[in-house]
Amino acid sequence: MIKSQSVLLSLCLCIEDTGTYFPSVKRDPGRYLQPCSDSVKTWLQSMKTAGKVLLLITSSHSDYCRLICEHILGKDFEELFDVIITNALKPGFFSMVPQQRPFRTLGEYSPLTPPFWFGLF
After folding, report:
1. Is 1 helix (H, G, I), strand (E, B) or coil?
2. What is the pLDDT of residues 2-45, one digit of tens each?
3. 15-16-20-21 Cα dihedral, nearest 10 degrees
4. What long-range pairs does 4-11 form, CB within 8 A, spacing at least 24?
5. How far apart are the two ends of the chain, measured CA to CA in Å?
6. Half-sphere exposure of 57 toward its Cβ, with a 13 Å CA cutoff?
7. Which residues pair with 85 in a beta bridge?
8. Which residues contact 115 (CB under 8 A, 6 or more apart)?
């Protein structure tokens, strides 16, 4: 198996705690991830302050998204985004009609309190 195939296989196996990739990152995120600089967080916050709606859209599962974002952006990363969409199945997420991409609210939902977490199933 060539290296790119083994990386792809590892990424496919990161669902929940199966395979080797996800459990390894979960056990020791600092080994695989580097926190972003404060300037990135400041930039995101300045866009929000300027009235921009910030979306985080990922094809990753919500638990993996949370793990990565908490390590890279900090425990308060949710404050930087208005909407967080996981399991997006990109690029189809952007081209499917709404009936083809059902949303599920993850966690408690309050229409007045962002961030709003959604997953596609």
Report:
1. coil
2. 444 444 444 444 455 567 788 888 899 999 999 999 999 999 99
3. 60
4. none
5. 31
6. 12
7. 57, 118
8. 56, 78, 79, 81, 82, 83, 84
CA distances from 2 to 7, 8, 61 (A): 9, 10, 26
R_g of the chain, CA atoms, integer Å: 16
* CB-based burial, 89-118: b 16+ in 10 Å, e otherwise: eeeebeeeeeeebeeeebeeeeeeebbbbb
Assigned token pair, 119: 């997953």
In the structure encoding, which two tokens stand for residue 86, read together?
A: 């996981």
Do 22 and 15 contact (CB within 8 A), yes or no?
A: yes
The reported pLDDT for the residue numbered 71 is 95
